[in-house]
Specification:
Chain A is α/β, with parallel strands linked by helices. Chain A contains seven helices and twelve strands. The first copy, chain A, has a single domain, classed as Spore Coat Polysaccharide Biosynthesis Protein SpsA, Chain A (Alpha-Beta Complex). In chain A, strand 4, helix 2 and strand 5 form a beta-alpha-beta unit.
Chain lengths: 224, 224
């Protein structure tokens, strides 16, 4: 439990943010006066000031991000790399930069409200069992669509999945050596397809993804 | 489609709000300066100023609510009735007050952000097909707990369910004539257990249930 293992955060901010209907990619939108991504990197920095942070951005957005870092005097050290066509490709092409025998946390750049304790739970469990992903309970009654319309299901048997998703780097590389399939909506799904069991840990309910304009309002409320 | 049918809102605010850890029941907490319940009643009033609104409160909270209505000069007409032990019992004991051949919208008192258009969609579909409930898509990757841990499921085949849930009053009464079962987590489940097909319509994402303190912050953000 105390073996020293390098921890790396791979923060994926590949999206061009078209759903926001602003010209600005959603990872650059301001949340309490700072671009969303700066909040995200800050949480990982607060979790472990010595950890390596790799930020994946669309190639075209890299100059804008560098300018933002200068303008805001952003001091948290990180490497910047270019993403691919989809989130899957953004992770896949950058795993070559990750050494073997370390733990890598893949995190959505647009989840600035992940808590330090969620990150800590993920790494602690991944250290013991090889992987861990954060989840929360389903907040409402839930139905499953069916041929006859829909039917109620037991929501307590389901979980909503968040990031960071933490994996042994070798397992993650092996998983991402596969060809892309459309059911690969998160890293856990890619790893699971090789037959690995995924370990769930408790996330934090504020850890929402900034996707729509109202998400930014909600995130602002959570930060108050 | 144009047959005139009486529409009634049965607003259930039976909870004592212990999860809020305030002394105040959550339906009385202030949202933008007004008790949550006043916002809720106001949306139904804006949907149809002539509709009958029946408010179900814990017996012990009725005097406090009447005082709030006086203090805030709350003008929207409504009947106040006492609830039962659970939400199921609160609905069941008050259905006797609802005439046959009308449409009744059962709504959670702590969902003040339901939109007029969600209410309208529910009534319009229930008028045609006998019932309608609002739903939204699942916002995240989802997993189902299983013997081996968990497995990813296709979230696009599921929906989160909201209120108001609108039914032909006779069907609702027949459904609530049943004994309570623990899987009856909403009205649609009670009606469905008699073999009726439930019709889904689009809800609105802001239509959250005020359950935890952070929900109040989120609701405030949505109202801005």
């Amino acid at each position: 439990m105390t073996r020293p293992v390098e921890k790396i955060a791979l923060i994926v901010a590949g999206g061009a943010g078209n759903r926001m209907k602003t010209g600005i990619p959603k990872q650059f939108l301001l949340l309490k006066g700072y671009p969303v991504l700066m909040h995200t990197l800050d949480v990982f920095y607060r979790y472990d000031q010595g950890m390596r942070i790799i930020l994946v951005l669309p190639e075209t957005e890299i100059p804008a991000w560098k300018r933002l870092c200068e303008d805001y005097g952003f001091q948290i050290g990180h490497e910047i790399v270019a993403g691919g066509e989809t989130r899957f490709h953004s992770v896949k092409r950058n795993l070559a930069k990750i050494p073997d025998q370390c733990l890598v946390a893949v995190h959505d750049g647009v989840r600035p409200l992940v808590s330090v304790s969620t990150i800590d739970r993920c790494f602690a469990t991944a250290l013991k069992f090889g992987n861990a992903i954060p989840c929360i309970e389903i907040p409402e009654t839930m139905r499953k669509l069916s041929r006859k319309g829909s039917e109620q299901v037991d929501r307590y048997r389901y979980r909503l999945i968040q990031t960071p998703q933490v994996f042994d780097s070798e397992v993650l590389k092996k998983a991402y050596a596969q060809e892309y399939r459309k059911q690969f909506t998160d890293d856990a799904g890619v790893v699971e397809s090789l037959g690995y069991t995924i370990n769930l840990v408790e996330g934090n309910p504020e850890n929402i993804k900034i996707t729509y304009p109202h998400d930014l309002k909600v995130a602002t409320a959570f930060l108050q």
